[in-house]
Structure formats: structure tokens, C-alpha cells
């Protein structure tokens, strides 16, 4: 197949219809490019031997490949550069990786809208959205090198090949390393706009799909990896905020003079919802914070009690009038009228906190003339790659430079810019001195942004032959997509389906939490299926086999998980297995084996087996690690984690009152089977977590005959169910 080529306009920054940014930085071409409209900071990074916007090449053959995504433990610092290196035919042993500049026009991946570009590490979208971009960019870099070799040797381009950092001319038995080509590099007159089928056949991959060590792990082990918390700048001062635990309340500081007289305190900065303190040291700032005397106003949240609200939610679900319909297939009304049997069940989910390991923090330095700023932060980025700072400070976006750091956990919380914007406000007050803002753990829990509390009312209809003919799913809660997403059933053949959301808002701060609405909604769906199966005397796996008959990929994960777990084999006395299926980009079926201490109410998960179809697997070992981490986090949220609100006030304040899973609670084994596929990669970071609740509850149902319908499954709730 011929390769489509385009004439290169050297005065244009973006090259190729795919949106891949080629920035050839060699010879006399570089100054012309720098004189165009690209951001100053990006131009400064284009050194003598830059090959493209994605890679820098030295004469020694050393490559620096740029990672456009956040690195919060999910492996983007390896997976995305690896994709680039695969198509470039680079020598991986000579590759180092750095964060790219935060410029979406150049380094953005595919957005949710056609033609849009985002630098947003959320929704398990990193590998999925950058896969084609990185492949094409790598192939174009390879083409530049091949063209240079063809000109240098005066041979046809078609006679050359590349492998492991070398260009080869078989006819004359010549080889030349990529680094040795640097003196001969120049801008080609035409540049291929590679189509998908003109890239490597996945069967020929030599890096993708292989066991390759992650690039950032050594630095994380020896302590040299830099997180935002590690940033220390000359003249830096420290900021903290007192936000209270009543969301939306306004503060009235009554002892400002006393605080300003304290040792090291430099300034007090009021916010609508908080009081900020800036001091010479963090200790001085925290000491001053403890002494703040604040009268707090009432807010929308005043009087709200989270554990009492479910009765009101049930009344909302009782209403005949539909809410906002998000899915409607067939006619659930007809299915209800013709049903042999109907099941209606309510499921409840308490608030959950992100509990990321590294406290929220940022460093911002505003120039003395207030016309530029620099930001050091661990962020999941966002629709605005400058994280809200330009608009807040009234300066041009190109005058804000964001230095992305490693993240000590995100899970959706660091896709918010509130902590960055707070730091920018403080830094504006102290310009040109840099300010480091740190949220304490108590700050982050009491003024957190939680996965919403919600109620799911499910109604299923079954015909005379035990086929599920209809499923109605009513979600009650705040947050729109935060509660209503994840309720589709594309891989279950249920002819009549309805999903609707009914809003109830209380002024509590909410945010995407790992897997968003999939956690509560898949819990409800998967538990409903097992309750139907038990009542109809059908094996839960057999019921899902029937429902997945038209979805062979989903069915393959079910069959593999059943095989891994020896689903029909003998089980130790006092144990039982439960199954759950989840689609969150990738397709996964999980089976867990549990026991229950009937005296304490504590559930013990002994084993978890997962079968996953995620398309092309870039890093197999890392995907398995993602599954293991997702299961552990899921178990923590299902068995332990709970935010409660009384009279509008958050009751938890640290990890003594907000319980997390402990080492002694983890399973004996988590085993993951990856199903081979050449399909486009799908996300894996959020597939495991939402399968945990359903699998545990379904295992509990098989073990005890009792139903767990309220997350989390605390020992107190388990005992209540056992004794009911």
C-alpha cells in the first residue's frame, strides 16, 4: 500500500492530519520554528539534536522520549514511550523518559469529542487515547532517520530497514546507528501521514507485550524520584488553609491580629470558604492554623445526615415520574406487564474518600510584575493544561509554565485544580517568593471531594423460561455522571432496559473516584443477577453465559475466570465463591473466594481470580499490577471505607476514623489471566475495582443465603444481616 505524503510547511508547528506534532529541530530549520507562535518554554527545550516534538536524539544514540501523561503509579512513564519506541525501532536500552511540556495542542491525546485534544490522565484513557498518536509519531521519527540514511548513502529509501536503533542497507551490508545520523538529519520535503494499517503488524512487535521493567521504578526505590512534596525553591514560604468540615460554610476570623503576631507568620489570606495562613516554615504555618478562631456560617449542608437520607431517597425512587433517562432500549413497561416474575431491590452506597497517599500540595511562583508564573505540581492535568492559573491570576496561558511531577496517588482527586488555584492565590500575595501549599490529611478528609452517596433501585422481569426480559435501573443521588455512569449493560442480552437518574443534592463536595459510577452501579447489577439466579435455581455463571451469548469477548472472560477459579470444583468448608463482570473500557470477569467470621462479622477474602480482555497489552506485568491494585482498593472501599455526615459535618478526620484495608486483610492470592488480542488497547486502571463489591456480596449470598445490599460491608452491617 502506498504511503500518503504531505508537503511540509516549515512555518507550521503542527504536522499531519492525525494531529501528531513533528518539530524537526536540526540544522538551520530550528530558528525558523522557534520564531513561530509556539510557547516560549517549549522552544527553550528544543536543543541542537532534537528530532521531533516527542523525542530528542544525541550523537551517542541516546534517546529522550517525552511522556505526555501523569505518572501516578500506573506506568505511563514506560507504556507510552514504549509505544513510540516500538514504531521508531529504537534501542530501548538507550531510552530515557521525561515529562513532556504541558501543551495540549502539541502533546494532547484524543479527547472525548471528535477532533479534540486533551492532556487528562483520567478514565483509564491514557494508553487508549495515545496509542495511535504515539505509534504514528514513532513511525514518522523512523521515517526521518531512514530518509537521512538514504541521502547519506545515496540509496533508495525503499532499500532501507531499521531495527533496534540501526538503519540497515542489506544490499551493501551497511549499518548506521541513529546517533551517527545526527549530523546528516534535515527536514524531509514530504512527510508520511501514516494510516493505521501502514504501521507495524502487532505480530511483529518486539517491545510491546514483552516483560520490560518500568523506567521510573529505580528512582522511586532509591528515593531520587521527585514528587511535588519534594520541591524546595530559594526563598520559598509555606501556606495552609483552614476550611472546616461543613462544606460551603463561610468563615469569619475573630483573632487576626493575634495570628499575625505569631512567630514566622507573614500574611493571612481570606477565601470565601477558608482562611489561609502564609508563614516562613510549614511548622509555623500549622501552629498558626491551630490558633485560628473562626465563626462559621451555615450552609446548604447544614442539618444533613447521610445515614438518614436513604429513607428520603427511597421516596424519590417511589415517584412515578421518571428522572433524566440515560439509557432506554426496548420497552420495560411491556416487559413488566408480561413478566412471569418481578424482582425489585434497593442498593445503598455511602460516601467514599480518595485516600491518595501523597497529601495534596503544589508550589507556585508568580513573577514580580505579576505577568508570568511557574507551577510545580503532581496533577492528573485537565481540559486546561495550565490548571486554571491563567484565568485566576489574569495572565496569558503562554506565560504559565507547569512542571509536572510524579503523583503519590490520584484516583480522580488530582484531576481537580482547587489546590493549585489556592496556591496560586497565596503566591500572588507573596510574589516573587514561591509558595508551597500543603493540605494535611485532616484537611483532605474533612473538606474532601467524595464519591457520591447514592441509592440504586433495580427492577428485573423474568419470563416463564427464566429469561431476564427487562431491567429498570433508577439511580438517586447527587453528581450526574458521578452516580449515573456505569449502568449500561451492553454485554448482557437484556432486550428491554431503562436507566434513569433522579437528582438529590445536599451541598457536599463530590468528585470522580476510581471507576466513577461503575462501582455502585455494577455492584447493584451483579448482585441482582445472583439473586435472580438463586431464586430461579440457576448457577450464576450459567446465567451470565446465557446473557453473554451475543458478546463473545465478554463471554471469553467469564469462561476463563471460571476456569482459573475452578468454579465448579470443591470449596473448603466455610467458604464460597462469587462472580461479577465489569466493562470499563476493557472487559473483565472476577471470581472471589471468601469466608465469614459469624461472631465478629468480618469478611475474609482468600482468593481473587480475574480474566481480562484489554486489547493489545503494552506492558503485561504492569497490567497485572493494575488488576492487583484495583482489587485491593476495591476491597478497601467495600469492606472498610466510609464517610458519614452529621448535621452537615464530616465525621472522619484521619486514618484512625476513616478505616483502610490493612496488610493482614489482603487475599492470599490474586491471579490475573490476560486474553490475547490485537484490538486497540482499552483502559485497565478502573476495571478491577468495581467488580469487587458484586463478587464479595455474591459469594456471601452463596455462603449464607443472606443478602448484602449496603456498601461498605462493615462487620456491624454483616452481623445485622446474619442475625436478621
From TrEMBL:
The protein's matches in SMART domains, at most eight in alphabetical order, are given as: Ald_Xan_dh_C (SM01008)
| SUPFAM superfamilies hit by this protein | CO dehydrogenase molybdoprotein N-domain-like (SSF54665), Molybdenum cofactor-binding domain (SSF56003)
Q: Where is the Aldehyde oxidase/xanthine dehydrogenase a/b hammerhead domain?
A: 222-300
Kindly list the GO molecular function terms attached to this UniProt entry: oxidoreductase activity
What is the designated name of this protein? Xanthine dehydrogenase family protein molybdopterin-binding subunit
Source organism of this protein record: Pelagihabitans pacificus
